[in-house]
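Appendix B. Chain record.
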Amino acid sequence: MKVNPRHHREPAVYTVTDAPRPMSEDIGYRQRRYLMSMGVRTICFLGAVVAAVAGAPWWLAVLMVVAAAVLPYVAVIFANGGREPTASAAFDDRSQREQKPVSGQRPEIRS
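Structure tokens predicted for this chain:
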């Protein structure tokens, strides 16, 4: 007797490793990345002042001022970009890579 595998469905198994990072962890990551970018901006601005006072080539000071002016825009865009996509630490079972339902009836717990 042949069993048609399309009609035989096993219940979906959910694992903790499929869960995304907590929101607090994601926000902390974005805040640290933003602060690092602002630190680089401060270094660029101070470097431009030192380069101008020390008599370095004018293009070096201008380059640092431009970097200090552009970095806040880039930092804000990346900080407000939303949650970072992360690969889940799922098992390497290719057949279970289908979209899992978000919510609904769960017959295994009689809901």
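Further analysis of this model is presented in Appendix C.
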